[in-house]
Amino acid sequence: MTKLPKKELFHIPDGVLYLDGNSLGPLPRSVPGRVAEVLQAEWGEQLIRAWNKAGWMALPGRVGDRIAPLIGASPGSVMAGDTLSIKVWQALAAALKLRPERRVILSDTGNFPSDLYMANALAGLAGGGREVKLAAPEEVAAAISDEVAAVLLTEVDYRTGRRHDMFEITKAAQAAGAVMIWDLAHSAGAVPLDLAGSGCEFAVGCTYKYLNGGPGAPAFIYIRPDLISEAEPALAGWMGHADPFEMATDYRPAPSIERMRVGTPPIVQMAMLDAALDAWQGVDLTELRAASIRLSELFIAEVEKRCPQLELFSPRDPDSRGSQVSFRFEAGYQAMQALVAKGVIGDFRPPDVMRFGFTPLYLDEGDILAAVAILEEVMTDELWRDPAYQTRARVT
Amino acid sequence: MTKLPKKELFHIPDGVLYLDGNSLGPLPRSVPGRVAEVLQAEWGEQLIRAWNKAGWMALPGRVGDRIAPLIGASPGSVMAGDTLSIKVWQALAAALKLRPERRVILSDTGNFPSDLYMANALAGLAGGGREVKLAAPEEVAAAISDEVAAVLLTEVDYRTGRRHDMFEITKAAQAAGAVMIWDLAHSAGAVPLDLAGSGCEFAVGCTYKYLNGGPGAPAFIYIRPDLISEAEPALAGWMGHADPFEMATDYRPAPSIERMRVGTPPIVQMAMLDAALDAWQGVDLTELRAASIRLSELFIAEVEKRCPQLELFSPRDPDSRGSQVSFRFEAGYQAMQALVAKGVIGDFRPPDVMRFGFTPLYLDEGDILAAVAILEEVMTDELWRDPAYQTRARVT
């Protein structure tokens, strides 16, 4: 019954051990052929007619429906499009409309910066004394007061890998009368999710990490089905209109999740994501999660044994982590450069965090052991002292 | 010196006369190879490292700088990204911040619906009694009062093809103390533009029409250089931060036009647009415009002679038109379906408008004469009465 690993579905370059699928998933082998078809047979041959004939118009909803089972959502509750920052804005703006009398957006200090930037910008634009308050991740549930309009949290912390308890916090938010918004950037495709069961009002996420949709792949937004018809799209673009091609002067949102569409969708990237999602056919997310824990536990044990210079930054309890493991090291930036130069790709997050992602679709225990052996060499031989790795460039 | 036509740079299917490049430009032959390279050599081989090594991080600004000369803007004043609706929102939100004491957004009844929807949604969110007022296109200059914060107009009307006088209206807006925003959806790549000379504060546009960037290609935003450092991005995503990879909790906008970036850019569609822009090398926009007028004048003359059922809807004076011509016909929807079935592709806009675009990069006088001959056949033989064309589907 287990279908793991699906390694052969992905292109992993020779000599590379890729522990950064939590940042940008690798190229699924199904993507280039699909893209060539969209370019040549659809755009090239059908031209404008492809919006209907090739199903371009319906593609964002179709892709949303394929993401839905991966996050525990029902068909018709997920729409793909835009970027995660835009979808955060839409979810949060809709939440504020649902709680007009409340002034506080609550988030945590571990949230991804873009979520906080968007929340602050929205609070400023909406005015009325609205403000963003931040609590420490461990204290966020206790900080939900009856002033809070919306709780906006990323389920898995991008730096530490720490995972919130989605059910508990959603319950606490709703008990206080707040709207719950989950950012699933580091969750979708990494851990089993039950959005419907959690009862949360909104969720958003990106698809270029564990879902392997490619660089700048479309984001997604989820709305709890009973709320769709009252959720204001905020960014009221024509594609979310009930009948875009009526071209009416007045906006009338689509009755369905289609209302969260904004402008003309990026069809090629949407098709890439659609093709990338093929890899999930037959994947049992509970088995995937068990494999992820096996890989990350092995990694932690080996690193702690062989690289005593590194200090575990992620929670030790696998149930409290997502699918990444972070270690702190003073020269972490330089050490990551040295490691990448030797073919082991992870990434670095300020101030001193070396981050490694575990993606059992294309990683196995042999990869982990090989990666740790190289990491040990980098640390023991202090390869990170090489002058080539001292200059700080922008690294994603 | 003339480099027109550049027809061989585009793929036009056999048997097709494409008069809809004003809606979706055809596939440039340079695009599939570039996309294959981005997928295989960049994403596939470099993985996350491609953000720096393959120049992905800088691509939106580089593409913006390639659009700049086509719209009369200087390098560093144009940024590519997101969709046109999002860029309208950003420009308008920044304009409202520049005129906090004023309450009115002025547009015209011919503006594209999405611009009006976004303007209304923004006015509602910003509150403070802000509202959108609409004037008839001919009366918009006279309607600019000292209550107006921003004038938001699409230079070329998507239905009629009527073209505003950019210099005159910008002058009128600024004389009244309002901020001027031009939407160049139907202008960029169609008519010579001198944004810098006009002095307008903001402009936005899309690239999948005359610029041939492909379905859902990224949009762009222009800010007058002296205003960049005070223009608030509104949608304050991390990619517009002065140092995104500092991952600071507080937002600090980039000092440059980079501040108008929002989320992670769609790299494949950005590269497609970059490749599509190659077609503009050596194109003199004044010559292109002259060719467009020759083609559209020929089309009007022939249609009026041979299809008396159709009534010209666009301005008769070519200087008052963009690069499209619209005719009204009661059964325009059905007639356009019949025409498309015979290989002449234009499009339909409610309530009864048959729309034809003139794109001298890949259309010549022979194409125009051949298209009119088929249109004459559709009209004379009343092919539009065929039951197959009576059902109204969504058509872009």
CATH architecture of the largest domain in chain A: 3-Layer(aba) Sandwich
Give the CA-based shape of chain A: globular
Question: Radius of gyration of chain A, Cα only, in angstroms?
Answer: 22 Å
Number of helices of chain A: 11
Structural class of chain A: alpha/beta
List the helices and strands and how they pair.
Two copies of one chain form a homodimer.
Chain A: E1 10-11, E2 17-18, E3 27-28, H1 31-46, H2 50-53, H3 59-67, E4 78-81, H4 84-98, E5 104-108, H5 113-126, E6 131-135, E7 148-154, H6 166-175, E8 179-183, H7 195-198, E9 202-205, E10 219-223, H8 267-276, H9 285-306, E11 311-312, E12 324-328, H10 332-341, E13 344-345, E14 347-349, E15 353-357, H11 365-380
Parallel strand pairs in A: 2-13, 5-6, 5-7, 7-8, 8-9
Antiparallel strand pairs in A: 1-3, 4-10, 9-10, 11-12, 12-15, 14-15
Helix pairs in contact in A: 1-8, 3-8, 4-5, 9-11
Key structural traits:
homodimer; 396 residues; alpha/beta; Aspartate Aminotransferase, domain 1; Aspartate Aminotransferase, domain 2; 2 domains; seven-stranded mixed sheet; four-stranded antiparallel sheet; 11 helices; 15 strands
Structure description:
2 copies of one chain form a homodimer. With 396 residues, chain A is α/β, with parallel strands linked by helices. Chain A has 2 domains: 7-28 and 282-389, Alpha-Beta Complex (Aspartate Aminotransferase, domain 1); 31-280, Type I PLP-dependent aspartate aminotransferase-like (Major domain) (Aspartate Aminotransferase, domain 2). In chain A, 33% of the residues lie in helices and 15% in strands. Chain A contains 11 helices and 15 strands. Chain A has helices at residues 31-46, 50-53, 59-67, 84-98, 113-126, 166-175, 195-198, 267-276, 285-306, 332-341, 365-380; strands at 10-11, 17-18, 27-28, 78-81, 104-108, 131-135, 148-154, 179-183, 202-205, 219-223, 311-312, 324-328, 344-345, 347-349, 353-357. The first copy, chain A, has a 7-stranded mixed sheet with strand order 4-10-9-8-7-5-6, with helices on both faces. A 4-stranded antiparallel sheet of chain A has the order 11-12-15-14, with helices on one face. In chain A, strands 1-3 form a two-stranded antiparallel sheet. In chain A, helix 1 runs antiparallel to helix 8 (267-276), helix 4 (84-98) crosses helix 5 and helix 9 packs parallel to helix 11. The model of chain A has no long low-confidence stretch (mean pLDDT 96). At the A-B interface, helix 1, helix 2, helix 4, helix 5 and helix 8 of A face helix 1, helix 2, helix 4, helix 5 and helix 8 of B.
